[in-house]
Amino acid sequence: MRAALASDSAELAALHRAAFEAPWPQAELADLLASGSDGLIEEGQGFILWRTAADEAEILTIAVDPAARRAGLGRRLVQAAASAAQGQGAASLFLEVAIDNLAALGLYETAGFEQVGRRRGYYHRPDGEVDALVMRRALNT
User: Fold this and answer.
1) For site-directed labelling of 117, which of 25, 98, 104, 132 has its Cα 20 to 30 A away?
2) Alpha helix (H) ranges present in the chain?
3) What is the pLDDT at residue 141?
4) Residues facing 30 on adjacent strands
5) What single-letter DSSP state applies at residue 90?
6) What phi and psi values does residue 124 have, to the nearest 5 degrees?
7) Whether this model's pTM surpasses 0.90
8) Cα 107 to the center of its chain, rounded Å
């Protein structure tokens, strides 16, 4: 695992396309990294992007290649981001997840996240809108 750079944007975009129905464009991923968001990448397998502001951090996205799922990579990426964010001064780590993404919900609950809010109609899909759960993990415990 290594730090993700803006120059990794093509690889990140390919991984995001493999992981999501509505992937983020390569330019957006490159802009996030160039603007100060942090990221980690497992070559060809997955990545996580987050940003830290004051004493809070937010996971922006995490993508794991479908062929590499269920092997602990998502858990390792989340833990590495949590550790890095804590090292940057964050006391809490937040994320949003679709209520129907059961695999991600399981991952986050196992990683110590708790639901703290709900955003109605946050995700727009071809068959309608889906709520997002806002989840938080304390980093100073």
Assistant:
1) 25
2) 9-19, 26-34, 73-87, 102-110
3) 64
4) none
5) -
6) -100, 125
7) yes
8) 11
Cα→Cα distances 48→36, 95, 135, Å: 14, 12, 16
The amino acid that residue 32 corresponds to is L
- Does the domain at 2-138 match CATH 3.40.630.30? Answer given as yes
The answer to whether residues 99 and 128 touch, using CB atoms and an 8 Å cutoff, is no
Count the residues in the chain: 141
Q: Which residues are catalytic?
A: 96, 108
Tens digit of each residue's pLDDT (9 = 90 or more) over 64-79: 999 999 899 999 999 9
Mention every residue, 6+ apart, whose C-beta is less than 8 A from residue 37: 49, 50, 51, 60
Over residues 12-22, the mean pLDDT reads 92
In whole angstroms, what is the distance from residue 67 CA to residue 128 CA? 28
